[in-house]
Amino acid sequence: MNRLRFCVLVLAFLAVPGARTLSQEWRVPTAMKKLNNGLVVVVSEEHSAPTFGLCIAYGIGFRLEPEGRTGFAHLFEHMMFEGTPEAPKGTFDQVIEGGGGFNNGDTRYDFTEYIESAPTSALDPVLWLEADRMKTLDFSPANLENQRKVVEEEVRVNVLNRPYGSFFWLDLPQKAFDRFPNAHNFYGDFKDLDAATIQDVQSFYEHYYAPNNAVLAVAGDVTPAEIFEKAEKYFGALPERPVPPRPDVSEPPQTAERRSTETDKLARVPALALGYRMPPRTSHDAPVGALVGELLHNGEASLLYQALVKERKVAVEVSGGFNWPLGNPFEYNGPTLMTSFIVYPSSVTESALVSAYDAVIANLAKGGASAQQLERIRAKMRSDWYNELEMPLDRASVLAHATLFDGSPARVNEIPDELSKVTSDEIKAFARKYLVPTNRTIINRVPVPSAGKAEGGEKGPQP
User: Fold this and answer.
1) Per-residue pLDDT tens for 426-446?
2) Residue 59 in contact with residue 79, Cβ under 8 Å?
3) Which of 383, 444, 421 has its CA nearest to residue 168?
4) Counting beta carbons within 10 angstroms of the beta carbon of residue 17, is it exposed (0 to 12), middle (13 to 18) or buried (19 or more)?
5) How many angstroms from the chain centroid is the CA of residue 415?
6) Interval 99-123: pLDDT, tens
7) Residue 168 covered by a domain
8) Is 270 found in the same domain as 230?
9) Are residues 228 and 372 both part of a single domain?
10) Could you give the 3-state DSSP secondary structure of residue 207?
């Protein structure tokens, strides 16, 4: 067939109503099995390359750590790399990296995950290593002190000695929410970190790092039968352990706008953080909110960037989104925010910036999104989601989180269709319901006056 004619036919086909639904027909293959000790195993078979991605997600994150143990979830993420009696410190990295792979870990509000990617020839050693550190760790004072210092140094680098001090993701939730799970300094207060003992750390591990509080997901050049067999071999003998009940993370309704000011000795121009409370993850409003977050914040074509930076020139930088920046809009399991982080010139007042911001929200609530805007952002979000499911390591991570929250990986295949169904009327209704002053918190972060002495306002975060 003539190449030009073929292209014309393809374009004509894509213009047919409903044709774009073909882009949503691809579904991630999954298989799931629960071992007798409660460990849930998920497998996604994909043979495009002789590699695999592995994720173990534990049901412990920032908001789930006990009171008096702020920063413990993050601290313990580090402790998991300090070795075990069978595999001393350094063995984990040597085995995985020596086999051509890599590994990492991170902590979020509702989970802590450990990830590895390697050639399939390294599958058995990697599974053995993960099972080994699910069994026990090297609980030594030296390891605890080492990682305590590492975490405290992270706080110094990322909070105390950086302009704006991460206030838009660290301070904002503490002011937007009321209950400890959602409103404490999850990076860790120095007093809590310094007070931690070996007994505290071991108790935390035994309560939360149990097989019955975890999901093991493997994606790549493997088969379900192979992974189920190996999971039983390496993890099956680990005992189930008591896991503390999930704390009540619900929040009382917000009834008034919350505003505060912080001074910043390192910032040269002011910045504003605005956070709106968002609907539960399982709500019909959640995918609408996810799309609204992208409409407002996604790049230079976003509504906020165009209005505040390009047109009104009341801002120099705009970023943000739904459940941003510590997660994507689909992976949360408790109260979360839609956050806007805006850096603005010193010549602009806070009230002028907020007024310009509110005008963008008002236009969205009144007119919704145009057909072109809606299709652009839906296509972008679907593409981003499929891209996240393409690489075995990313796919394993997404599958582990979905299974941890819902007991099944099926959720990952529902999201593209949900995004495709969002309408302009739903966007207007969402803006009128959630993007209102009584549902938001604002922090204005301003440079310390040139005299070097902060006047009024609150101090920045003090871990």
Assistant:
1) 999 999 999 999 999 999 999
2) no
3) 444
4) exposed
5) 16
6) 899 999 999 999 999 999 999 999 9
7) yes
8) no
9) no
10) helix
Which alpha helices (H) appear in 236-322, and where do they start and end?
Answer: 285-297, 303-304
The DSSP call for residue 225 is H
314 and 356 share one domain: yes
**Closest CA relative to residue 171, chosen from 276, 72, 43, 260:** 260
User: At residue 378, what is the residue type?
Assistant: R
Ranges of residues in the chain whose predicted pLDDT is under 50: 1-24, 452-463
Q: Which residue is listed with tokens 């008034």?
A: 256
Whose structure tokens read 């009171």?
67
From CA 307, how far away is CA 295, in angstroms rounded?
Answer: 12
Query: Which has the closest alpha carbon to 167: 68, 64, 274?
Result: 274
Q: What's the rounded Cα separation, in Å, for the pair 429 and 331?
A: 23
Is residue 51 within 8 Å of residue 118, measured between CB atoms?
yes
Sequence-separated (6 or more) residues with CB below 8 Å from residue 151 = 71, 74, 75, 78, 188, 193
Candidates 340, 344, 341, 339; CA nearest to 313 is 344
| Residue 86 CA: distances (Å) to CA of 124, 128, 138 | 16, 11, 9
Instruction: Specify the DSSP class assigned to residue 239.
Output: P
Q: Report how far residue 114's alpha carbon sits from residue 95's, in angstroms, rounded to the nearest whole number.
A: 15
Q: How many domains does the chain have?
A: 2
Asked whether residue 58 is domain-assigned, the answer is: yes
Distance CA 9, CA 75 (A): 57
Together in a domain, 279 and 196: no
**Whole-number Å distance between alpha carbons of 363 and 221:** 49
Pair 102, 225: CB distance under 8 Å: no
pLDDT at residue number 233: 98
Which residues are 249's β-sheet partners?
A: none
Which stretch of DSSP H or E encloses residue 259?
A: strand 258-264
Domain enclosing residue 39, as ranges: 31-235
Q: What per-residue confidence (pLDDT) applies to 451? A: 56
Q: Give domain status of residue 9, yes or no.
A: no
- Sign of the Cα torsion 296, 298, 302, 306 reads positive
